[in-house]
């Protein structure tokens, strides 16, 4: 695509908060992409008398950031103010009625954005996925439209995760073909890599088909999960820039290990983003981490192991540099490659050596203050040691 920078933009946007017996932290980074197209929402205490409810979401924009930005500012209001959702709340809050109200909110905001776009003569061709959770006192409502993903960790394991909406999925492919489209190279008409999204109005112009029957559908899948006070640990919401390089179980294990060494959810979120960058993600990255009271707690043993690991890595970096001797100071790529070939105990599960890149880089720079930063080389990311070949 060519839409990449020579060097990743690693500055992050962070936020955190707490309330309704929840704590959250979030992090977003532009990374290698020329533009930041992600957006997010985090609201504890919802409008229209829903103080005990909370809402969190990540929006992954494409072909521009307009739709993602608009959704982060207005989607929640479209959900909570529509008549279907309002009647669900005013009556004896049934799960199915809430799910229907959420779905109505998505269809409403999509139609509203289409009207705005048409008034501007269709200048906005951007779209956005959306993954979110609405948390009531009794239920967690996972909401997904596109290929961002949300998951729930419960009782020490992945309990639930949303299904990505890809054009090659049988039901998605059937809808696309029924609307006169095709799936080529796993994309809608060979172009768009997601089969459900908000916006993307160029793919929603098939006459005689309703909004949920178009090439690209704005309809979310909504899943209701009863809360388990003793076992619910945390929820992760993230764009595909995260999931491209970390599997569900890997990310869950990594987050659990981080929560055992710090209570700072912004810091944990930043570690997720940095680790995914170093594992090779080339996309924008955004993650929201929501913790329940049952989340892992800081453990003195884990903190001690972490400190010992950091000290070990610092010592090894010094040894690797000294070993070069008269050959001069090795570059950081050589140091990382050497460490990647070794069996290092107590590396964070899921993150492995990539999650310790910042520690390694810090001691390397301390020992070599005048060396230029070599992160401009796109090969600086790694998942396996052979990633360094080239």
TrEMBL record:
It is found in: Cytoplasm, Cytosol; Membrane; Nucleus. Keywords: Cytoplasm, Hydrolase, Lipoprotein, Magnesium, Manganese, Membrane, Metal-binding, Myristate, Nucleus, Phosphoprotein, Protein phosphatase. Residues 370-390 are annotated as: Disordered. Its main location: cytoplasm. GO terms for molecular function: magnesium ion binding; manganese ion binding; protein serine/threonine phosphatase activity. CDD domains: PP2Cc. Its cofactor is Mg(2+); Mn(2+). One of its GO terms (cellular component) is nucleus. Residues 23-292 form the PPM-type phosphatase domain. Its EC number is 3.1.3.16. It is an enzyme of class 3 (hydrolase). It catalyses: O-phospho-L-threonyl-[protein] + H2O = L-threonyl-[protein] + phosphate. InterPro entries: PP2C (IPR015655), PP2C_BS (IPR000222), PP2C_C (IPR012911), PP2C_C_sf (IPR036580), PPM-type-like_dom_sf (IPR036457), PPM-type_phosphatase-like_dom (IPR001932). It is a lipid-anchor. Residues 371-390 have a biased composition (Basic and acidic residues). Monomer. Interacts with SMAD2; the interaction dephosphorylates SMAD2 in its C-terminal SXS motif resulting in disruption of the SMAD2/SMAD4 complex, SMAD2 nuclear export and termination of the TGF-beta-mediated signaling. Interacts with SMAD2; the interaction dephosphorylates SMAD2 in its C-terminal SXS motif resulting in disruption of the SMAD2/SMAD4 complex, SMAD2 nuclear export and termination of the TGF-beta-mediated signaling. Interacts with the phosphorylated form of IKBKB/IKKB. Enzyme with a broad specificity. Negatively regulates TGF-beta signaling through dephosphorylating SMAD2 and SMAD3, resulting in their dissociation from SMAD4, nuclear export of the SMADs and termination of the TGF-beta-mediated signaling. Dephosphorylates PRKAA1 and PRKAA2. Plays an important role in the termination of TNF-alpha-mediated NF-kappa-B activation through dephosphorylating and inactivating IKBKB/IKKB. PANTHER family: PROTEIN PHOSPHATASE. Belongs to the PP2C family. This is Protein phosphatase 1A. It comes from Poecilia latipinna.
């Amino acid at each position: 695509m060519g839409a990449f920078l020579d060097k990743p933009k690693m500055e992050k946007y962070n936020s955190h908060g707490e309330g309704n017996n929840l704590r959250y932290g979030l992090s977003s980074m532009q990374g290698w992409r020329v533009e930041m197209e992600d957006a997010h929402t985090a609201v504890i205490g919802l409008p229209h008398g829903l103080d005990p409810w909370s809402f969190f979401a990540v929006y992954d924009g494409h072909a521009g950031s307009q739709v993602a930005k608009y959704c982060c500012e207005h989607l929640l209001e479209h959900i909570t103010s529509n008549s279907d959702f309002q009647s669900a709340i005013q009556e004896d809050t049934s799960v199915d009625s809430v799910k229907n109200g959420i779905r109505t909110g998505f269809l409403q905001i999509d139609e509203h954005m289409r009207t705005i776009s048409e008034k501007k003569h269709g200048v906005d061709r951007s779209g956005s996925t959306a993954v979110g959770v609405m948390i009531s006192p009794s239920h967690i409502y996972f909401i997904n439209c596109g290929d961002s993903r949300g998951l729930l960790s419960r009782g020490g394991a992945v309990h639930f995760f949303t299904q990505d909406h890809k054009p090659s999925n049988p039901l998605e492919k059937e809808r696309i073909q029924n609307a006169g489209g095709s799936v080529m190279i796993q994309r809608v008409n060979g172009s768009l890599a997601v089969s459900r999204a908000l916006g993307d109005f160029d793919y929603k112009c098939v006459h005689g088909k309703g909004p949920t029957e178009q090439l690209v559908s704005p309809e979310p899948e909504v899943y209701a999960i009863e809360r388990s006070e003793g076992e619910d640990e945390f929820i992760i919401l993230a764009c595909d820039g995260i999931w491209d390089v970390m599997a569900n179980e890997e990310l869950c294990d990594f987050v659990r290990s981080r929560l055992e060494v710090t209570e700072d959810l912004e810091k944990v979120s930043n570690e997720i983003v940095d680790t995914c960058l170093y594992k090779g993600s080339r996309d924008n990255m955004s993650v929201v981490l929501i913790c329940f009271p049952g989340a892992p707690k800081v453990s003195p043993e884990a903190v001690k192991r972490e400190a010992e690991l950091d000290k070990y890595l610092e010592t090894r970096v010094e040894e690797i540099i000294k070993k070069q001797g008269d050959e001069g100071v090795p570059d950081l790529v050589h140091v990382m490659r050497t460490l990647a070939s070794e069996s290092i105990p107590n590396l964070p599960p899921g993150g492995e050596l990539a999650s310790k890149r910042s520690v390694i880089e810090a001691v390397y720079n301390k020992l070599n203050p005048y060396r230029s930063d070599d992160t401009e080389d796109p090969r600086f990311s790694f998942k396996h040691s052979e990633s360094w070949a080239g």
